[in-house]
Amino acid sequence: MNIVLDFSFFYDLLEMPPLEMLWFLFSHGGWVIFLIIFLKFAWDFYVFYIQERYRENTKYVLLAIDVPKENMQGPKAVEQIFASLAAAQSSGNLIDKYIEGYTQRPFSLEIVSLGGYIQFLIRTPEKFRDLAEAAFYAQYPDAEISEVDDYAKETPNLFPDKEYDLWGTELVFYNKDAYPIRTYPSFEDKMAKDLKFKDPIASLLEVLGKMTEGEQLWLQIIITPCKSDWKDKGVNEVKKLIGQKVKVKTNLMDDILNSPIKLLQELGSIIIPQESSEKPKKEEPHSLMTYLSPGEKDVAGAMQEKLSKTGFKSKFRVIYLAKKEFSQKGKAISGIFGALQQFNTLNMNGFKPDGKTKTSVDYWFVKTRVAARQKRIMANYKNRSNMEPFFILNTEELATLFHFPTVELKAPLLKRVEMKRGEAPSILPTTEKSLKEKKEDDKKGGPPGNLPIIE
To answer: What is the enclosing helix (H) or strand (E) of 66?
Structure first.
């Protein structure tokens, strides 16, 4: 049996002029591919448009949070707050997503220093304000939470600016999401007699408190509640580390591209049958856990611990903004990265500046490129942008990076509540008000020029 393959069609096609060949392909079915590509671009543009409209119509509030001076609660309490905020996660139905443009809205955790005055803030969608306040009050009943104006609103948008100089960057992981950063349980010193917990927030507050008149240092962590499907990749990373086999998932496009290859393999096996040469399979261990070094076992255990807790899609930004006559950029940058270094581990994960967003470049068109990056990072900071790329931080990691100092920490320029609020005597006359009226009474005016106020 002789099989003859005729390639004359392809030879004739290649001999055509380029435009004639394109028209021939288009008129003989190629228009279907063109239509599919066009519809894909049109659909993506439509989804982007309605999602941008939804983002613009979402209202936010910026809340300043002050805890009592005698606060004894550590990061564990804040971890419970983030677990509560995860309840805001919602996928929305088809109408929400493809007509209204629904996308999951983020929270923004911010620690800012304005001339050395430090304030903790959270920016939340207005519809989740009650959820956020309830989460904080549940752990800090004596905290004061007040709505304030956006401190970043009056700062320059365009750079270079005559009055201000800006340095900023986004921070990214230097390893995969499944690998954790160093978290607060690792800062416990069991050998210490006086203070067993060496609070990592102390270094950050020290750097923030060193800012002087005309200097501002902003830290921003954008967190977006998400589904738990991020853990699937993490589980595969753990399996690779301990030597287990990982099943490779294929999508529809992979199946379409691989089907011709599989067909040719089947035809080849029919035309040229091969003798079966089955070899006895060796029994392989379920995993190589017993062969791992102690350090590798610790890494695998830490990864599994991270995967056991709720995660958030996260972005981390740092901005130093100062009037040019007061700018001490080198001191601020080295200080903040020195403080962040304590969260890094060489065998697991940590933070590094994102080379694509950092406002310092080399070689060509330096001034133009720096100005463009300054403008972009300031816009993303003010908009609290949560666009990709992002990384995953779980509740424990977030609580390590964003928590309130305890009474032992000396941070004199941090706004704190002076004393606990007492309960009103039961015999006092009361008037019943609606929830709306109570909220109106509770609202406070915008902050003065130098937020926060230090009494």
So the answer is: strand 60-66
